[in-house]
Amino acid sequence: MNQQYPSVLLEKAVSEFSRLPGIGRKTAMRLVLHLLRQEPSAVDSFGNSIIQLRHEVKYCRVCHNISDTEVCQLCANPRRDASTVCVVENIRDVMAIEATGQYRGLYHVLGGVISPMDGTGPGDLQIDSLVERVKEGGVQEVIFALSPTMEGDTTNFYISRKLADTTVKLSVIARGISIGDELEYTDEVTLGRSIINRIAFNGNV
Amino acid sequence: MNQQYPSVLLEKAVSEFSRLPGIGRKTAMRLVLHLLRQEPSAVDSFGNSIIQLRHEVKYCRVCHNISDTEVCQLCANPRRDASTVCVVENIRDVMAIEATGQYRGLYHVLGGVISPMDGTGPGDLQIDSLVERVKEGGVQEVIFALSPTMEGDTTNFYISRKLADTTVKLSVIARGISIGDELEYTDEVTLGRSIINRIAFNGNV
To answer: From residue B174, how far is each of A79, B98, B103, B143 by CA, in Å?
Structure first.
């Protein structure tokens, strides 16, 4: 359907919304018309919250999780077990694991997985900083908690080789989760159990 | 799942997004993380387009459609047939009818339909301005193009009574089976009405 927008401002707002993943022009229109019915102050709050986040967001210099401070709340918490580091793809995975309440260690957010198809190589990820973090000492165990996909397994293997000359224990979360599933959509019980039942990592799973 | 946000800024942006209709917290998170990966200038553009729209939006003083000007492009267009006014619920309906390319008249956007259940009375809609518009003269036909629901029918009826002392011709868009629909799956009310309101067959439809 060739949409004729009655207003340039409207068309611009709809275009901006429809650039978001999974939002088509019809949904974008519905969202924009919803915002038009809200108070101007509420719409200011909406728009500014996103602009502010983008400009002021920080990433923890230890684990690279999103943070409001130089070092995130998890890394700065003395009650967390700093000898265990859980390697995850992104901050949604940190939140998913935190929500299980089964893990008291720290994290390392890679920012993705090695994926030649998507043009993501080891240099695009926070792998060097992980190796450095382990070599600085204090870390006794690295838990791989990447999605059980080809890319996740490749990344596990690459990191394990990088850490081969250290004495750190490597483990991988138990594969109670089916191959090909996205980690963040796994139910809490399965995900929690897969952390408890993690097994020694020897390059294969 | 009890989500622990690693950043107050992030939590605020996700909360704002999840207030939109049909957007849950998981989808909101996905959208916010997408925006975090965009250039700051692109995010500024996104946020500001919405804020600007909300503050600068105008509604045509004739038909109440969204407009960048006092009188919208449709009402200001001398090639449109100003003697015919199509009554619609909202601006999406204007766009849907415009997209058909079958209508050359003008519109009147009510801003909703009479719905006691939702607390929408005639006073909340642009009905008085429609009656005034007809009584000013020049309008020869009012076409009701509201959704064929109880609320739409009630609104049609209410407006028709308000216009009873004028000579304007009232019509309603044809209701019947959709082009391409299977007859056996059409609901009884629609099918029954399409039989009662059958039209002369001249080889075309």
So the answer is: 70, 17, 14, 10
Sort A19 into a burial class: Cβ within 10 Å, 0-12 / 13-18 / 19+.
middle
CB contact under 8 A, A32 and B12: no
Q: Which of B1, B51, B68 sits opposite A47 (nearest CB)?
A: B51
Tens-digit pLDDT profile for residues B82-112: 999 999 999 888 988 888 888 899 999 999 9
Tokens linked to B22:
């049909």
Q: Determine what percent of chain B falls in helix, strand and coil, rounding each to the nearest 5.
A: 45, 15, 40
Question: Which one of B1, B36, B43, B53 makes the best mutation probe of the A interface by having the most chain A beta carbons within 10 Å?
Answer: B53
Q: Rounded to two decimals, what is the model's pTM? A: 0.74
**How many CB atoms neighbour CB B120 within 10 A?**
17
Give the whole-angstrom CA distance, residue B104 versus residue A194. 64
Give A-chain residues touching B54 at CB under 8 angstroms.
35-36, 38, 40, 43-44
DSSP secondary structure code for residue B106 in this structure:
E
CA Rg value for chain B: 22
- Cβ A99–B4 below 8 Å, yes or no? yes
> What mean pLDDT comes out for the span B183-198?
78
A111: left (phi over 0), alpha (psi -120 to 50) or beta: left
Q: What is the gyration radius of the CA atoms in chain A, in angstroms?
A: 21
Q: Closest chain A residue to B91 measured between Cα atoms?
A: A6
Alpha-carbon distance of B124 to B128, in angstroms, equals 10
Q: Are B53 and B108 in contact (CB under 8 A)?
A: no
Tell me the three state secondary structure of residue B152: helix
3-state secondary structure of B172: strand
pLDDT digits (tens, 9 = 90+) for A29-86: 999 999 998 999 999 999 999 999 999 999 999 999 999 899 999 999 999 999 999 9
Q: List B108's β-bridge partners, or say none.
A: B87
CB pairs under 8 A between A and B: 173
